[in-house]
Design brief:
The protein is α/β, with parallel strands linked by helices. The protein contains four helices and five strands. Helices cover 43% and strands 31% of the residues. The two termini are 21 Å apart.
Length: 118
């Protein structure tokens, strides 16, 4: 997982292409905390995920689930940039994160996804 730093105060951008490890989630958590602390009025963050392929180590999956369940209220929008097969994941996310607006964008629509979460 690659975390792309940006100047957008409310947006975390990640690229996923392969296996997500416990260390990846720890790095994400550190960046999340940095972004969250910089916000005023306890505003929510938006997440832009560009997914090419996705797999987890067991430790990475457990760490991700723990993070997700403890931070559901910290996100407003999640944009998933991926091909159609990953759209199913987005549909499942909506069920577990009803307070978060989730949209799937095709790879050629990445600029629209960036605009939507900005």
């Amino acid at each position: 997982m690659i975390i792309r730093t940006n100047d957008l105060p409310y947006v975390i951008e990640v690229e996923i292409d392969g296996e997500i490890t416990e260390e990846d989630i720890e790095n994400f958590e550190a960046y999340f905390k940095q972004k969250k602390e910089s916000l005023v009025n306890k505003a929510k963050l938006n997440l832009l995920m560009e997914i090419r392929s996705l797999d987890y180590t067991i430790d990475g999956l457990i760490k991700d689930i723990k993070f997700d369940t403890s931070h559901l209220d910290d996100f407003d929008k999640v944009a998933m940039v991926s091909d159609k097969k990953w759209a199913e994941i987005g549909e499942k996310l909506v069920k577990y994160m009803p307070q978060v607006e989730v949209r799937q964008f095709d790879p050629e629509e990445k600029e629209q996804a960036q605009a939507w979460v900005s």
